[in-house]
Amino acid sequence: MAILFYRTLPGAFDFLIFDLGKMKTMNANFKWKIVLIDDEADIREVVSLVLTDAGFIVETAENGTAGIELCKTFCPQIVITDIRMPGMDGLAVLEHLKKRSSDIEVIVITAFGELDFAIRALQLDASDFITKPVSENAIHLALKRAMERYLSRKKLKEYARFLEQENVNQAKLLHRDKLISLGRLSASVVHEINNPVAGILNYARLMLKMLKQGGLSEHSTVRFTDHLTLVASEAERISTIISSLLTFSRKTDFTISRVLIDELVERSLVLARHRLELAGIGLTVNVEQGIPGFKGDFNLLQQCLINLVFNAVDAMERGGLLELSASFCPETKRVLIKVSDSGVGIAPEDLDHIFEPFFTTKDEGHGVGLGLSIVFGIMERHRGGVTVHSQPGRGSAFTLEIPV
Length: 404
Prior knowledge:
The protein is an alpha/beta fold. The protein has two domains: 133 residues, Response regulator (Rossmann fold), CATH 3.40.50; 233 residues, Histidine kinase-like ATPase, C-terminal domain (Heat Shock Protein 90, 2-Layer Sandwich), CATH 3.30.565. 52% of the residues lie in helices and 21% in strands. The protein is built from eleven helices and 14 strands. The strands form four sheets. The chain has a five-stranded parallel β-sheet with strand order 4-3-5-6-7, with helices on both faces. A five-stranded mixed β-sheet has the order 9-11-12-14-13. Strands 1-2 form a two-stranded antiparallel sheet. Helix 6 packs across helix 8. It is elongated.
């Protein structure tokens, strides 16, 4: 036990008893630094001694201005300040400290009957107030609450930083997965672009030849017009492919806009259709009429759909049939996009793991196990979901569910 004399009036003292055992228990796992601000030298000395014996690291200041300067260099977690001081009072100290660093917990000491000051202190985010004469339980509880508040805020800030870093990492994974998908697209896109380019060159050469022969006949004029129409059509086709590819490859933040299912399916198939043809896979598309638009990130949803199509292609090494359908469920108010394949299916023991990052059943060099975990994450961000039904040897069906 330690007995502290606390001055309440000039020449008069009240007795305050601290249980040092309790204090040391509170201070066992963290080096707490306290700044004590009071204009009474004997109070500063005795309180400082008691708190130091309890394991706290304590510095003192004789007035508000000196206390604020001390906090700048000492960096305490807790400040204990008297309200009534000449010059800068305790409320001014509290307000200044909170503006500079909201992490600091401030305990104010008020005289009995100064309830208005105590309320104002709490409004300024003081962790607690103690009235004179100070009791053992009051100082014990005030310090306990201040330490708990400080640690809680610290954990919340650490968690906020973790979430912020998680978002950064998620964005990196999204972009990495997109780059992988772009790599898988590259061969088919080259073919897809080469075909219309070859057509444009051939028709351009034919038209040049016709011009060199001079004077276009009526028949030649018709052919000339047809050739120009085909050139324009093929050029537009190239433009569409490149535009879709650029949109897909762009690294963007989560951007909400109105999404129409017809456009989402069409633009996804522009990039994936030729890969299906190269793999000898048939395609059927069934999009119900009247599906309502919904809010979402078009780019990320396109990434989901292309991932599912690519997985389906990988599951049908000897060709097969891919079915893409879209519908609306009025009961759940969700748009359903389903990608089904006639491939090898998924083993029952793997079904619980397919959405885990870096889990893959593919051979080395054919995937890193990011695709489905990315799809799962994107669906979560859209407050939706993704489900799978699969049987070995009988194919798989993945369904994206997006709320409207």
